[in-house]
Amino acid sequence: MWYSKLNNKALWKEFNEISKYPRESGNEEGIRNYLLSWAEKHSFEAKKDQTGNVVIYAPATKGCEKLPPVALQGHMDMVCVKKPSSKHDFLADPITITTDGETIRAKGTSLGADNGIAIAMILTILSDPKAAHGPVEAIFTVEEETGLAGVYGLDTELVKARRLINLDSEEEGLIYIGCAGGLDLEASMKYKTETATGTPLKVTVSGLLGGHSGGEIHKERGNAIKILARYLNRLPSVSIASIEGGTRHNVIPSIATAVITTDNRDIAISTAQALQVELSNEYKVSDPGVKITVEDTEMPLVTMRKKKGQKLIDLLFTSPHGVKSMSTTISGVVETSDNLAKVRLENGKAIVSYSIRSNVDSRKMLLMYEIQTIAENIGFKTKATGSYPAWEPNPASKLTKEVSRAYSKIMGKKPVVTAIHAGLECGIINDRIEGMDSVSIGPELRDVHSVNENLNVASAERICEFVKELLPLLK
User: Fold this and answer.
1) 323 domain residue, yes or no
2) Of 388, 414, 445, which residue is a domain's last?
3) Other C-beta atoms within 10 Å of 13: how many?
4) Cβ atoms within 10 A of the Cβ of 332, count?
């Protein structure tokens, strides 16, 4: 077994079990049934709400009966992305895990440690006969990655604890006490087609790292859709037969493709070559593998009418992407950003999707209005959905002080108490359950929402042990 030489075999055995179950957002039935059967096996009460969330109740261990209840929380679903060459079926196949002893990864796909490692840590702690803790409510939500539907639908009557430790963070040593709010924006435009003429070419932008549009938006990684638009905007004559880029609203697009026709094949090829030189220089640190290729392809039957196609190019080229502003209250934290997340042609419509985030709700709305203005002036209609509030930091909270003090004692160094630009479920739980006090912690997890997702073994083992030792200290 891949984890045979790792230290905390109980943790990795549990993570391996979780990884056997397909759990793309909206397809959590398998992992949900596993959690319910796990609870029954360990004689713990468990409840499922109408949304599909699961809460497992672990009673206090001997000597800890007087401690107040604590909630441990993570989400069941994962972002499912794979390499173009992968034949992995996310509806049926288990994740294939590999390790070099320092990190674990998946073979050809995202790993799902976001947020499978939270589930594994919680189950490992609750099943450890040596663990001491007061009453624990383990909350496992669904559809976190596609709009936080699970936590919004959580039956709050199932939650009695008023202290919550969310385990969905990705950097060891940080205690998050605030997060960004966000919303999704869609711009759409109807178009008609015309008979394809000219030289048909397939354009592909690839080799980018992608990643989480909240946690890694500040790393200046390339957006494949923006690069594709940059190329198309330079062509003197172009018609679009098809265009596709991006996978999820919260994933920085790493691949984008288009089938086009043009009046001058030589210019199309030389333009791509010139742009490749620019990209290799611009992204030599953040995305050294960036690649744009142009190749001959079969002649499509139709293309978008040229004026409408140019409007789509104009929107993609002028749309903002990346960091809009940095926080003036918490040093080094992104305040506002957007991810130009997806583009596609569907049923006679060109559809462009954005994910907007901000730690300040008014700035979130301002950026939305700016993008709406750009899109609507070009000729698109816009619609905003899935808005969720920012979680405002409270450094004076009792739980923050207790967790910080325990971290210093157990780990031998002070944590950094800060906020995160990504959205966290505990912010919504705080908003929905009066009196809830939350923090978010987690192990070193890199390149989430991409095929390069990797989890640091030693860090995950340390955080698991820290949470176990923390629980009996929470008065």
Assistant:
1) yes
2) 388
3) 15
4) 9
| pLDDT tens readout for residues 112-148 | 999 999 999 999 999 999 999 999 999 999 999 987 8
The reply to whether 429 falls in a domain is yes
Per-residue pLDDT band for 173 (boundaries 50, 70, 90) equals very high
Residues annotated as catalytic (active site), given as ranges: 77, 144
- State whether 396 and 412 are in the same domain: yes
Residue 309 and residue 8: Cα distance in Å, rounded? 55
State the CB neighbour count (10 A cutoff) for residue 346. 9
Q: Are 247 and 342 in contact (CB under 8 A)?
A: yes
Instruction: With both helix axes pointing from N to C terminus, report the angle between 265-282 and 224-234 in degrees, rounded to the nearest 10.
Output: 140
* In-domain check, residue 4: no
Half-sphere exposure of 249 (CA within 13 A, CB side): 24
Domain boundary among 357, 388, 419: 388
Q: What is this structure's pTM?
A: 0.77
Give residue 374's pLDDT band: very low, low, confident or very high (50, 70, 90). Answer: very high
The CB density around residue 36, as the number of other CB atoms within 10 Å, is: 15
**Structure tokens that stand for 387 in this block:** 């808005």
Distance of CA 211 to the CA centre of its chain: 8
Which residues span the domain enclosing 77? Answer: 9-180+391-473
DSSP symbol at 157: G
- Residue 120 forms part of a structural domain: yes
CB atoms within 10 A of CB 92: 8
Together in a domain, 352 and 423: no
- Measured CA angle at 469 (ends 465, 475), to 5 deg: 150
| Pair (348, 446) in one structural domain | no
